[in-house]
Design a protein that fits this description.
The structure is a single chain. By secondary structure, the protein is of the alpha+beta class. The chain is about 50% helix and about 20% strand. The chain is built from 6 helices and 6 strands; from the N terminus they run ββαβββααααβα. It has helices spanning about 25-35, 75-90, 95-100, 105-125, 125-140, 155-215; strands spanning about 5-10, 15-20, 40-50, 50-60, 60-70, 145. The chain has a 6-stranded mixed sheet, with helices on both faces. α2 packs antiparallel against α4 (about 105-125) and α2 packs across α5 (about 125-140). It starts with a strand and ends in a 10-residue tail after the last helix. Residues about 155-165 have low confidence and may be disordered.
């Protein structure tokens, strides 16, 4: 999937978010980047490894989506524009109400909307919205791409690295567990093969000896 994690926030306070099912939790990375977004109206893309964090900041609210770099920029910004419109259409989107909404106060009501919109743009993105986003990107030349490393201090870099290391550790643990199970299965298979081979050899020896000594194997008995 191209779009991985999306949210709507008031400043650095997340009001609602949604992440597609994944082995890696991107919530800490998005929260860290969200805290670095300036308060003025702006549009920007932050690059981090193979991921891009696109956002629109307008009127004190931030609309952010994390995507694979293969998604480009047209699709994520088209998604963000659509997300912004749907958010502003909420009955509770007045400044007075939203100014006092606590963190994740809209998770129950707006997170399903984010999830549905992400699914649409990940499976069958509306071409007219993408064309509109492309036109806006062409008009606004200040939508730059900035490396995340340029906005993070050393401690935050370490925290992001820890998140990545934890995920790799979990994956390594699962790999080792799978390797042990595979080795155990191979050991049983080899043991069964060896037992069947020994049994076959013993039976073959019995048949050979039985030809000379009889079925009871009385080779030393008197005629």
């Amino acid at each position: 999937m191209s779009l991985l994690h999306a949210l709507v926030a008031r400043g650095s306070v997340i009001l609602a978010e949604h992440q597609v099912p994944s082995q890696q939790d991107f919530s800490h990375a998005t929260q860290t980047i969200l805290s670095k977004i300036p308060p003025n109206d702006s549009k920007l893309t932050y690059a981090w490894e193979q991921y891009l964090f696109h956002y629109i900041s307008e009127g004190g609210f931030v609309y952010l989506v994390m995507a694979d770099d293969s998604a480009g920029r047209k699709l994520p910004f088209a998604f963000l524009a659509d997300l912004q419109r749907k958010f502003l259409e909420l009955p509770s989107s007045s400044a007075a109400v939203l100014s006092s909404t606590p963190a994740y106060g809209l998770q129950g009501t707006f997170s399903p909307t984010i999830a549905s919109l992400m699914h649409t743009y990940n499976t069958a993105p509306p071409q007219d919205e993408i064309a509109r986003a492309q036109a806006e990107l062409n008009q606004v030349k200040d939508i730059m791409v900035q490396n995340v490393e340029q906005i993070l201090n050393r401690g935050e870099r370490i925290e992001l690295l820890v998140d990545k290391t934890d995920t790799m550790a979990h994956q390594a643990t699962a790999f080792r567990r799978g390797a042990r199970i595979t080795r155990r299965q191979m050991w049983w298979k080899n043991s069964k093969t060896l037992a069947l081979t020994v049994a076959a050899v013993l039976f073959l020896l019995y048949l050979i000896i039985a030809q000379f000594c009889g079925a009871a194997l009385h080779c030393g008995a008197a005629s």
